[in-house]
Specification:
With 83 residues, the protein is mainly β. The protein contains no helices and 7 strands. Helices cover 0% and strands 51% of the residues.
C-alpha cells in the first residue's frame, strides 16, 4: 500500500513527511447519483497518491506536542461512473 515515506527538515523546528501510496486514496470520495438509492450508480472521485504531514516542535515544552498540518499533492483528478 505504501511506496515510501520521505522526511525533510524544513527548519530547525519543523519536519515534513511525505507519505506516498500506490493508489490515489488520499482525499478520495464516492458520490451516489441517487442519494435515496445507495445500491444504484455512483461516481468515484480519485484522490492523490501523496500526503504531506508537517510537524512543528515547541522547544520550550518538555513534552513534544504533535499538531500536524496535513496537505495533499493533487495530481490529476479522475472520475469513474459505476452503474
Amino acid at each position: 500500500m505504501l511506496t515510501g515515506i520521505d522526511v525533510r527538515l524544513v527548519d530547525p523546528k519543523t519536519h515534513e513527511l511525505t507519505i506516498n501510496f500506490q493508489l490515489p486514496i488520499v482525499n478520495d470520495s464516492m458520490e451516489y447519483l441517487n442519494k435515496d438509492k445507495k445500491s444504484g450508480s455512483y461516481v468515484v472521485h480519485e484522490g492523490a497518491k501523496s500526503l504531506i504531514v508537517e510537524q512543528v516542535s515547541n522547544a520550550r515544552s518538555k513534552k513534544k506536542m504533535f499538531k500536524p498540518t496535513l496537505k495533499w499533492k493533487t495530481e490529476q483528478n479522475h472520475s469513474v461512473t459505476v452503474e
